[in-house]
UniProtKB/TrEMBL annotation:
<dbReference type="InterPro" id="IPR052128">
    <property type="entry name" value="Oxidoreductase_NAD-binding"/>
</dbReference>
<dbReference type="Pfam" id="PF00175">
    <property type="entry name" value="NAD_binding_1"/>
</dbReference>
<dbReference type="InterPro" id="IPR017938">
    <property type="entry name" value="Riboflavin_synthase-like_b-brl"/>
</dbReference>
<protein>
    <recommendedName>
        <fullName>Oxidoreductase NAD-binding domain-containing protein 1</fullName>
    </recommendedName>
</protein>
<dbReference type="InterPro" id="IPR001433">
    <property type="entry name" value="OxRdtase_FAD/NAD-bd"/>
</dbReference>
<keyword id="KW-0560">Oxidoreductase</keyword>
<dbReference type="InterPro" id="IPR017927">
    <property type="entry name" value="FAD-bd_FR_type"/>
</dbReference>
<dbReference type="InterPro" id="IPR039261">
    <property type="entry name" value="FNR_nucleotide-bd"/>
</dbReference>
<dbReference type="GO" id="GO:0005739">
    <property type="term" value="C:mitochondrion"/>
</dbReference>
<feature type="domain" description="FAD-binding FR-type">
    <location>
        <begin position="50"/>
        <end position="186"/>
    </location>
</feature>
<dbReference type="GO" id="GO:0016491">
    <property type="term" value="F:oxidoreductase activity"/>
</dbReference>
<keyword id="KW-0520">NAD</keyword>
Amino acid sequence: MACAAVMIPGLLRCSVGAIRTEAASLRLTLSTLRHLTLTSIMKSKRKTDHMERTASVVRREIVSAAKVCGAANESPSVKSLRLLVADQDFSFKAGQWVDFFIPGVSVVGGFSICSSPRLLEQERIIELAVKYTNHPPALWVHNTCTLDSEVAVRVGGEFFFDPQPADASRNLVLIAGGVGINPLLSILRHAADLLREQANKRSGYEIGTIKLFYSAKNTSELLFKKNILDLVNEFPEKIACSLHVTKQTTQISAELKPYITEGRITEKEIRDHISKETLFYICGPPPMTDFFSKQLENHHVSKEHICFEKWW
């Protein structure tokens, strides 16, 4: 499920870089797009619906056709999608989500992008990870969606990390609970792209260290753990992670064990990373985001350095 924006400070924002690569052209008829963007929104009545929760959140104007070009089961309850996006003007910032329009489904979905902006620039691909629920868009992803299924997407959200090259260097602390990892993985992947740019070109934004705290019920529900550990191993002096499991019943693999802590993320762990140069991004269930944002404020972290979203 997407994270619904709750509070976001005005920090580190800039335009996305120019797209350099060509992509396959996908087309939806104007009547189909009109159905997706207007009729679907009008028919959506659930009080916890994505469109209602995010009605006041900034969105881009572009509604782009997209085609499913890949899918995988990331956990017993989460399925990932790779979408080929048609519109060359479609772009996003690491941490944002998309309105997800499905032909024939009257409810609009809202799913956080978990890939980096660089992947879109280079391959015209975005990635989503969708948890199984009874919500119609999630049911469609898990039960109906196939390769080459066509949808439409529109970027929204005020929770993102998008620094300009001249901005002051900052450390990042990313705090994720469950599927709240999705926008934070996008930010982590973007940070890794910035590190590669610095290493290869000695140019661009100079990012500090990145620490990811990520909690899930058990290791099978820790999404994208291989991708996360690959980045930790690629940048051992810059990227670190602490993976938490709260209800583990099976043996933890030798590969994961050095990174695993049994139990919830604690206030002390987060407090140890407080500094004037650190930005905190939090995404997870409402009680979790409320707890950590309040604790950070209590320790005199500037509100402009605390960014959070809640998933529902």
